[in-house]
Automatic annotation (TrEMBL):
PROSITE patterns: 4FE4S_FER_1, 4FE4S_FER_2. Residues 87-111 are annotated as: Disordered. It comes from Sulfitobacter undariae. This is Ferredoxin. Its cofactor is [3Fe-4S] cluster; [4Fe-4S] cluster. Residues 1-30, 31-60 form the 4Fe-4S ferredoxin-type domain. Residues 93-102 have a biased composition (Basic and acidic residues). GO terms for molecular function: 3 iron, 4 sulfur cluster binding; 4 iron, 4 sulfur cluster binding; electron transfer activity; metal ion binding. Pfam families: DUF3470, Fer4. Ferredoxins are iron-sulfur proteins that transfer electrons in a wide variety of metabolic reactions.
């Protein structure tokens, strides 16, 4: 099992999760985060930390696409281990549906 980040993170990018991760398996894109599925140790401490409810276990239905999405971008983006401010419109975007059209493949700064 692993945890994944889904599209609920897009345009929010809360980073409360990265501070509690014991193995530093979060990676930062321009407007979202992902978890490297091979590095995640399935501890689950990140899941309750996410204000956007964007972190889910891969055992939920239809998670295969998210595992591959997280794998792809975690291999392209820099690791993030420190909490940062969320995106400026995070509170407004939190809970909105259908945010994949806002997704950016650009890497974040990491750190």
């Amino acid at each position: 099992m692993t945890y994944i980040v889904n599209d609920a993170c897009i345009a929010c990018k809360f980073t409360d999760c990265v501070e509690v991760c014991p193995v530093d398996c979060f990676y930062e894109g321009e407007n979202t985060l992902v978890i490297h599925p091979d590095e995640c140790i399935d501890c689950g401490v990140c899941e309750p930390e996410c204000p956007a409810d964007a972190i889910r276990p891969d055992t939920e239905p239809d998670m295969e696409k998210w595992v591959e999405f997280n794998r792809k971008y975690s291999e392209l983006w820099p690791v993030i281990i420190s909490k940062k401010d969320p995106l400026p419109n995070a509170d407004e975007m939190n809970g909105k549906e259908g945010k994949m059209d806002l997704f950016s493949e650009a890497p974040g700064e990491g750190g």
